[in-house]
Amino acid sequence: MDSISRPGRPALAAASAAGVAAILVAWKAASLALGTELILPSPESVLKAAIGLYPTRPFLSGLWATFLRGLAAFGLSAALGIAAGLASGLRPMIGAALAPLLTAIRATPVMALVLIALLWFPSDFVPVFAAFLMAFPIMVTSATEGSRAADPRLLEMATLFRVPRLSVFLRLRLPSAAPQLLSGAKSALGLSWKVVVAGEILSQPRLALGTGMQGSRLLLESAGMLAWAFAAVALCGITEWLFSLAVKAALRHGV
Amino acid sequence: MAYELRDLRASYDGSPVVDDISLVMPSGSVTVVLGPSGCGKTTLLNLIAGLKDADSGSRLGFEGCRFSYAFQEPRLLPWLDCRGNMDFALSGAFPRASSGKAERIDRFLEAAGLGEASGLKPSELSGGMRQRLSLARSFAYPSDLLLLDEAFQAVDLRMKLELMDAFLRLFREERKTVVCVTHDVEEAAYLADRAVVLSPRPARVVDSFAVDVPRESRAFGSAATMEAEAKLYRLALGPT
User: Fold this and answer.
1) How far apart are the first and last CA of chain A?
2) Are the C-beta atoms of B81 and B135 separated by less than 8 Å?
3) How many other C-beta atoms are found inside a 10 Å radius of the C-beta of residue A55?
4) Is residue A141, in this structure, part of any structural domain at all?
5) Which end of chain B has fewer CB atoms surrounding its CB within 10 Å, N or C?
6) From B68, B69, B91, residue closest to A167, measured CB to CB
7) Which domain holds residue A106?
8) Which pTM value belongs to this model?
9) Tell me, what's the ipTM?
10) Beta-strand (E) ranges in A187-228?
11) What is the distance between the alpha carbons of residues B181 and B117, in angstroms, rounded to a whole number?
12) Considering only residues 139 to 198 of chain A, which have any Cβ-Cβ distance to chain B shorter than 8 Å?
C-alpha cells in the first residue's frame, strides 16, 4: 500500500517561499495589466511606502494602540467565554439560557455590530466591543466542548478519593479542556485582530491601524493604504505565531 | 474489629446480581474475593463502599469508614507527575499544606519503588510502574478500607509478580483492611489472609476459609501456597 510521507522542514519552507513568490508575481502581473497605481499599486511601490511609513511616530503609535485593543478584546472574550463555556458544559440549563444570545451574536454581521457600538461607546472602545462580541461565541463553544472532555474514569477516581471540587476543576477539568480551549483561543485571537481593524476603519479612533488605512484611502494613496493593511496582517500573523509557540511550550511543560 | 456484610442482596433492573451474601472482613487483613468474570464482584465492592444501595441486608461497622481504591487500569492524570498524582488524590484528606502530606507521599512512593521516579509523568513510566503508582496512591490515602478491583489483571506474569510484591511492601508499610476481588486463583492464594469464593451470577458465597500460610513463606506457585491453590481451584471450578 502507498504511504504518504511527510516532507522535511526545509522542503516545507521552500514550498511556502514558492507560494509567496507566486503571489508576488501574480500581483506584479495584475498591476502591470491594470496599468494604474491607483487601482492596484505594484509590490515595489507598496514596499517603498512601507519603508517610509513604518519608522514614523503616527504609525508606531497606531500599531501599539491597535495591538492593545486586540489584546483587550481577546482577553475579555477568553475570560468571559471560558467562564460561560465551562458553566454551560457543566450545567446544561446555563447552556440553554446562553444559546439564544450566542445564536444572535453569530448571525449579526460585523459591520452591524460596529455601527450599533458607535452609538453606545467612544470611538476608542468600539473596535474592542465588536471584536469581543465576535470572539466570545468561539470561546464559549470551545470551553463547552472542553468541559465535557474530562475522562469519566478520572472523575470517578476523584469522587472516590473525595478530592475537593476546586481541585477537580483546576487540576482535572481545566487541563482536560486545554486542547479545545487553546484551539478556540487561537481562532478567537485571529478573528479579534480582523474585527478590531474593521472597527477602527469605521469608528476612526485617533491612534489606530484602521484609521491610518482609511486616511490613506481618502488621500487616494493606494500604496500607503496597502502598507497599513500589511502591518495589520503582520500583527495578526506574528501574534498567532507567538501564541502557538506559547501553547507548544505550555503543553511541553504539561499544562 | 471487623467489617461485616449480612444477608446482602442487590440487583440491576430487577435482575439479581448479589444474592444473600454474608462476609466478615477482619480489620488489618487481606480478604480476597474470588469469582468468575461477570459474577458481580465489582458490584460487591460498590456495595461495600456504599456506592450502590442493597435491596436488602445490612452493612455493619462501616460508619464513618473511608475507602481508597486501586482499579484494573491505573487512572492517573497524564499531565501530573507521580508526586502530583498522589497529591491530587490526597488533597481532600490533607487540605492544609503543613499536614504531613508531602512526607506521606514520599514514604509511599519509596515503598512502591518509585522514589527515583517521583518527578516523571505517567507517559514516562512503564505499565508496571503506573500500576505501582496507583497502588501507592491507594495506600497513601488515609482510608480504613482499601478496595482492589482486579488491580493485578491485564498485565503479564512478570509484571503481576512485581505488582504483588509492591502490594505486600505497601501492606507492611501500612496495614489496612483490604478487600481484593479477582478471578485469579494463584493471586488469591498469594495475597489472601482469607479467601472467599463466589458462584457465577448471581453471586453467592460458595465457601470461605483462612489461608494459614505465613506471608514470608509464600511465593507465587510455591509448595507452601499449593494447598490453598488446590482448594480454591476445586471450589472455583465446582464438582466435575
Assistant:
1) 39
2) no
3) 9
4) yes
5) C
6) B91
7) 43-252
8) 0.75
9) 0.83
10) none
11) 29
12) 153-154, 156-158, 160-164, 167, 171-172, 175
| Number of folded domains that form chain A | 1
Q: What is the pLDDT of residue A253?
A: 61
User: Cell numbers 491453590 correspond to what residue?
Assistant: B229
- The DSSP output letter for B215 is G
Asked if B73 lies within 8 A of A153 by C-beta distance, the reply is yes
Is residue B8 helix, strand or coil? strand
A186-208 residue pLDDT tens: 999 999 999 999 999 998 999 99
Residue owning grid cell 464482584: B41
A239 domain-assigned: yes
CA-to-CA separations, A15 to A21, A28, A45, in angstroms, rounded: 10, 20, 26
A117 alpha carbon, distance to own chain's centre = 20
* CATH number of the structural domain spanning residue A203: 1.10.3720.10
**Tens of each residue's pLDDT in chain B, 240 residues:** 788 999 999 998 888 999 888 999 988 899 999 888 888 888 898 889 888 888 999 999 888 888 998 888 889 999 999 999 999 999 988 887 667 889 999 988 988 888 899 999 999 998 888 988 998 999 899 999 999 988 887 677 777 787 888 888 888 888 889 999 988 888 888 888 888 988 888 888 888 888 887 877 777 667 777 777 777 787 777 654
Question: Taking a C-beta distance cutoff of 8 angstroms, is the pair A77, A192 a contact?
Answer: yes
B chain contacts of residue A154, beta-carbon cutoff 8 Å: 75, 77
The answer to whether residue A14 is domain-embedded is no
